[in-house]
């Protein structure tokens, strides 16, 4: 059986999500998608140090929660390290319930929330913010098309 697929580069350049920014909200196209099948969201992350999975950044496509972004595997202290500042790739499955739009240009919405530290930091902490600043880049959606 022949399978057709395509991809959409949602964002190439790095963007900071965290203190002083809102969530990242981006419109994107998936022309000709077979939205009865799952798709894959691929992206690179840097600087995420949050250690509580419950407050990690949430990723939504068309309002459907598809998962959370994980910190660098060696991150256990919540502190920035050389390793956590490196770029590393993650992927999430976009379920068919997200109903990717096969027709309309920019008919889909990707949302990545901020990482809530879950605490109010007190001085003398040099970063008294409520959110863990991190970056994402190279966000790509891979999807299948009818054959």
What labels would you give this structure?
mainly beta; Jelly Rolls; five-stranded antiparallel beta sheet; four-stranded antiparallel beta sheet; 3% helix
Which range best describes the helical content: under 10%, 10-25%, 25-40%, 40-55%, 55-70% or over 70%?
Answer: under 10%
Which parts are unreliable, with pLDDT below 50 for 5 consecutive residues or more? none
Distance between the termini: 8 Å
Discrete helix count: 1
Instruction: Give the averaged pLDDT, no decimals.
Output: 88
Largest sheet: 5 strands, antiparallel
Shape: elongated
Query: What's the architecture, going by CATH?
Result: Sandwich
> According to CATH, what is the class?
Mainly Beta
Structural class by SSE content: mainly beta
**Rg measurement, Å:** 17 Å
- What's the domain count? 1
Spell out the helices and strands N to C.
EEEEEEHEEEEE
Instruction: Please count the beta strands (DSSP E, at least 2 residues each).
Output: 11
Amount of beta strand: 35-45%
CATH topology name: Jelly Rolls
Would you write up a description of this structure?
With 147 residues, the protein is an all-beta fold. It is 3% helix and 41% strand. The relative contact order is 0.39. The protein has a single domain (4-145), classed as Jelly Rolls (Sandwich). It contains one helix and eleven strands; from the N terminus they run E-E-E-E-E-E-H-E-E-E-E-E. Strands 1, 2, 4, 7 and 11 form a five-stranded antiparallel β-sheet that branches. The protein starts with a strand and ends with a strand.
């Amino acid at each position: 059986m022949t399978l057709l697929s395509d991809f959409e580069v949602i964002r190439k350049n790095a963007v900071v999500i965290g203190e002083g920014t809102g969530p990242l909200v981006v419109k994107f196209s998936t022309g000709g998608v077979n939205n009865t099948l799952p798709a894959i969201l691929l992206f690179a992350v840097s600087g995420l140090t949050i250690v509580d999975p419950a407050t990690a950044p949430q990723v939504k496509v068309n309002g459907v929660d598809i998962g959370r972004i994980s910190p660098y595997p060696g991150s256990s202290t919540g502190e920035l390290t050389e390793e956590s500042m490196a770029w590393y790739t993650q992927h999430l499955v976009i379920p068919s319930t997200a109903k990717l739009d096969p027709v309309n240009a920019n008919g889909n919405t990707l949302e990545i929330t901020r990482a809530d530290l879950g605490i109010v930091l007190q001085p003398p902490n040099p970063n008294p913010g409520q959110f863990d600043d991190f970056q994402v880049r190279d966000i790509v959606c891979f999807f299948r098309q009818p054959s």
